[in-house]
Amino acid sequence: MKKAAFLIFAILIANLSFSQETKTINVDFNKQIGKMYPFWAFFGADEPNYAYMKDGKKLLSELSALSPVPVYFRAHSLLNSGHDTLSLKWGSTNVYTEDANGNPVYDWKIIDKIFDTYLQRGIKPMAQFSFMPEALSTKPQPYEHAWKPGMHYTEIFKGWTFPPKNYKKWADLVYAWVKHSVERYGKAEVESWYWELWNEPNIGYWSGTVEEYCKLYDYTADAAKRALPTIRMGGPETTGPNWNKAAEFLKVFLNHCSMGKNYATGKIGSPLDFITFHAKGSPTVVNNHVQMNMGTQLRDISEGFRIVTSYEKYKNLPIIIGESDPEGCAACGMKTNPQNAYRNGTMYSSYTAASFARKYALADHFKANLLGAVSWSFEFENQPYFYGFRDLATNGIDKPVLNVFRMFGLMSGQRVSVKGNQSYTFEMVRDSSVRGKNADIDALASKDVNSAAVMLWNYHDDDVKAEDATIELNLSGLPNKTINLQHYRIDDENSNSYEVWKNMGSPQSPSKEQISTLEKAGQLTLLTSPVYLKPKNGILKMNVILPRQGVSLLKMDW
């Protein structure tokens, strides 16, 4: 039976070896280069209230199930005024109001509902002190926005972006929320969360100055530490470290935390337990097709790492890339923003595989303590199927990109050496993206005690049809034992609900039978049946045929 399975596998790969593009990739499982730490297990969304909706709860459960470690979830608008508002790029909890005499009134019902939903599914919060309650804003009106896809991004910035009219009341709110969390969830649980202040204060999300942000951080961190001295507090969640003004904001903040006078305590410095910034790519439409720009995103990461590690005091602090995505607007669908048409299909999958591998490489290069990279992609309730939002699932149907994270979840242990005959280095992708004749055909590999894995991708910035690539894969450093090999695949025919949906006629009201078919198509699937192989002197050689924008995972167990 084992010989038969091997022959089937050999025939499959032999019969697919007619591609014009042949690449060689060598993996040495004996040469470790670093831990296969799951920094990818971080996700987020603008809309916090979606978490406890039907499809939100389903997706949170799936995220928890695919990860070997607790997944962290970051959301905006956790302190916004309003009641359960389910709008794009908005959320509300109505935590803070004031009575007729101006005394604070706290109401934890909605925020507890959000965090209860996380914790019931094994998800941990990146708890964000944001944004300004209406009763505390220095310019409260107008407060809530009415943004819709197609409107200018700046239309969202209203009264919730302003500094507090009373910093003591803000600090009291921070203190009360942390105290309430400890009482509800326990000290040990809350200690395991990451707490932060605001989002992208270097652009319209913050209508104050950088000095006012530092002041707000001082009051926030002081109040949080008084409520729970062991709390993990960080910031500043600036976006675009490769922009001059954004880099300056980040540096001003780090200098302030290191040696500035604390606005709340009068002492020197402010507590900082981890550092955050954002990195985004920049797709466009060229000659009627989407052209990605991974280099733009990687340059932001590179410069962010360089800035943080240049501080002797902070070079070893954990770094969380608070949003790390191909572009900047999750709620901008492909109908209003055609450059976002990459999101439903395999382009998003291959981009994710290739870019996350370069995040590992950049962290290694700068010796940066990369703890997390938040994929700002979740789901949107009550929206059209496959509208082209940057999400992981649509109406409960998993999209191909979610299967890349399922693949990452099958990799563990230590990252090992990968070398190819034409591989793009991380410097090449960072500096010039993937725009040349050759695609980025490369791999990320790991080895654990009784398993190993190789993730392969065939990526190019230009989303155009191309010949399949034949990859000559040489694996060394394996045990001389019988190995069970499972080959998972994401391409147009595998692990791809979008292609199945299109073949159904793109229904916006699918039947129960169609929904069941789509749910099954959204799962990570095997390209072939598992096979048993026996390395010779620790070596296996095989060919893998990989379509453009396809991703494979070879999972080996013994």
Structure description:
Strands 1, 16, 17, 18, 19, 20, 21, 22, 23 and 24 form a ten-stranded mixed sheet that branches. Strands 2-3-6-7-8-9-12-13 form an eight-stranded parallel barrel, surrounded by five helices. The protein has 558 residues and is an alpha/beta fold. Among the domains are: 2-34 and 413-557, Glycosyl hydrolase domain, family 39 (Immunoglobulin-like, Sandwich), CATH 2.60.40.1500; 79-257, TIM Barrel. The longest helix is centred in the middle third of the chain and has 21 residues, at 346-366. The protein has 13 helices and 24 strands.
From the N-terminal CA to the C-terminal CA, the straight-line distance is 17 Å
Structural class: alpha/beta
Counting H and I runs of at least 4 residues, what is the number of helices?
A: 13
**Cα-based radius of gyration, to the nearest Å:** 24 Å
Mean pLDDT: 95
Uncertain parts = 1-19
**What's the number of extended β-strand segments?**
24
Please bin the fraction of helical residues: 25-40%
CATH topology of the domain at 79-257: TIM Barrel
The name of the CATH architecture of the domain at 79-257 is: Alpha-Beta Barrel
The CATH homologous superfamily of the domain at 79-257: Glycosidases
